[in-house]
Design brief:
alpha/beta; Rossmann fold; 4-stranded parallel beta sheet; 13% strand
Length: 179
């Protein structure tokens, strides 16, 4: 059997957006019997040379007010972040990745700066579907309701874009988008 293809989701802190995208993609792959073909992980820009400030806590469960508000939707989606540990992306991960999905434009730009030799495999997560610009980086600790909206947005992108994701990873190309 050939090696698994590595898909990496990246946001600033690897606390909310990329961690949830990782779990949701893995859930979809398992449902479709494809978990043995792909490895999906998530990473942060924080802790790299471009954003040296370390993440304060390892995962969303440590942000108790926000976590309590979003836990019902996470449970509904079968997303458990209790064992997740925020981890900064490094060159080895970028090298090994088949594709790297940035959750927003600033993260994509940072990834392209950090890993210029891998710029061809860096896309916005929202590129998987039409008519969505990006999953906006809203500080989840300021307005917990934004966190719920963000989770729903990620789920919506994946629901519509899982086929496109698999096509991209297998062929290297996204299907043509209608105009």
């Amino acid at each position: 059997m050939s090696a698994k293809k590595l898909i990496v989701c990246v946001c600033r802190g690897n606390i909310l957006r990329s961690a949830i995208a990782e779990k949701l993609i893995n859930n979809q792959l398992d449902i479709n019997g494809l978990g043995d073909k792909y490895e999906v992980i998530s990473r942060s820009i924080q802790g790299t040379t471009l954003d040296t400030k370390q993440v304060r806590y390892p995962n969303l469960t440590y942000y108790s007010e926000v976590y309590q508000r979003v836990k019902p939707i996470l449970d509904e989606l079968n997303v458990d972040l209790s064992q997740h540990v925020s981890t900064a992306i490094n060159n080895q991960t970028a090298t090994n990745a088949t594709h790297i999905f940035a959750m927003d434009k600033l993260t994509k730009s940072a990834l392209q700066t950090l890993f210029p030799d891998h710029a061809n495999k860096i896309l916005l997560f929202s590129d998987l579907v039409e008519h969505i610009d990006e999953v906006v980086d809203v500080p989840y600790y300021t307005k917990p309701t934004y966190s719920i909206k963000t989770i729903q947005e990620i789920k919506g992108i994946l629901d519509k874009g899982i086929g496109n994701l698999l096509t991209l990873v297998e062929t290297g190309n996204l299907p043509e988008k209608s105009v």
